[in-house]
Amino acid sequence: MRHVFLAVRWGCIGLTAIVFLGQLVMVLMRYLLGIGFLEIQDAVNYAFASLVALSVAVAFDADRHVRVDVFRQKMTSATNSWIDWFGDLLLALPVFCLMLWTAFPLVRSSWAILEGSPETGGLPGLFIVKTCLLILPALVILLTLTRLIGKFRRGRS
């Protein structure tokens, strides 16, 4: 599983480079040369959408996600560990299962028509970007189940 999240992390780094360089090229071409390419704009949009979706799983894996720690700093690490366990069980798991369930029809229909850019002359392949709506919850569910099972096993021994 570590290899999967390492691959996703490197994918996010690549997507960040595409967003940065694509946006830089678009701005330079538009303001210095007076031309623009819809394909570059679509590539930046696709990369950014994929980056946003996949970086959620990377942040969750690295435990760098946003949380409100008003009381956390005054609690013991064992208490915080149990709060994380219950949060994973009662919040993360149901929310991402629901996200997976509701995103599946959207992604399936997008693949059925091989959906492309809504812009005339834009890039094909929007269906691949929409697949990130399934990859994100699947990764978070796998990570959450791994954490829950790990905590359960440590608690029993």
Essential attributes:
0% strand, mainly alpha, single chain, 157 residues
Please describe what this structure looks like:
The chain is mainly alpha-helical and 157 residues long. Helices cover 78% and strands 0% of the residues. It contains five helices and no strands. α2 packs parallel to α5 (132-156) and α3 runs antiparallel to α5.
Number of helices: 5
Helix and strand sequence: HHHHH
Mean pLDDT: 91
What structural category characterises the helix and strand content? mainly alpha
Helix fraction bin: over 70%
Count of DSSP E strands?
0
pLDDT under 50 segments (min length 5)? Answer: none
Oligomer: single chain
Work out the strand percent. under 5%
Radius of gyration: 20 Å
From the spread of the alpha carbons, the general shape counts as elongated
Distance between the termini: 23 Å
Q: Sheet bearing the most strands, described?
A: none
Brief description of this entry?
This protein has helices spanning 2-33, 38-61, 77-112, 126-130, 132-156.
Give the arrangement of secondary structure elements.
Layout: H1 2-33, H2 38-61, H3 77-112, H4 126-130, H5 132-156
